[in-house]
Amino acid sequence: MKKIEHIGIAVKNLEEANKTYKAVMGSEHYKTETVESEGVATSFFRIGESKIELLAATSEDSPIAKFIEKRGEGIHHMAFAVDNIEAEIKRLEAEGFRLINDKPKQGADNKLVAFMHPKGAHGVLVELCQDINKFE
């Protein structure tokens, strides 16, 4: 793993959260995107080499809606940048970790992503991220 790519924060209202994080970060978000397959609208802020990703549900049955219903707004996941997502999936499985995704899938911000089950990481949902243009 190379670095913390971003921290995902589940929010009820993306517009209101954008205003809050604009004030916190001192700058506007640089990108919004909807990931239909996950039922989520996202907004990204940069902070140094890392990012904050705000996530709002676009449907009542999306994973983010379920997360907020169960736990409320707050940190949803920690994402790590990797050079080779398929190799990282295999490495983590060999270490005994359970992955939610055994193959990478299209995520937001031009990334391939895969998630590790939070039970294996002391309650933290871990996301692996690889730039799509680096996928071979």
TrEMBL record:
GO molecular function, one term: methylmalonyl-CoA epimerase activity
Known EC number: 5.1.99.1
Domain VOC: 3-131
Coiled-coil stretches noted in the UniProt entry, renumbered to this chain: 75-102
Keyword Metal-binding in annotation: yes
Keywords, alphabetical: Coiled coil, Isomerase, Metal-binding
Pfam families hit by this protein: Glyoxalase_4 (PF13669)
Family the entry assigns: Belongs to the methylmalonyl-CoA epimerase family.
PANTHER family in alphabetical order: METHYLMALONYL-COA EPIMERASE, METHYLMALONYL-COA EPIMERASE, MITOCHONDRIAL
Protein name: Methylmalonyl-CoA epimerase
Organism annotation: Salegentibacter chungangensis
The organism's taxonomic lineage, starting at the top: Bacteria, Pseudomonadati, Bacteroidota, Flavobacteriia, Flavobacteriales
Gene: mce
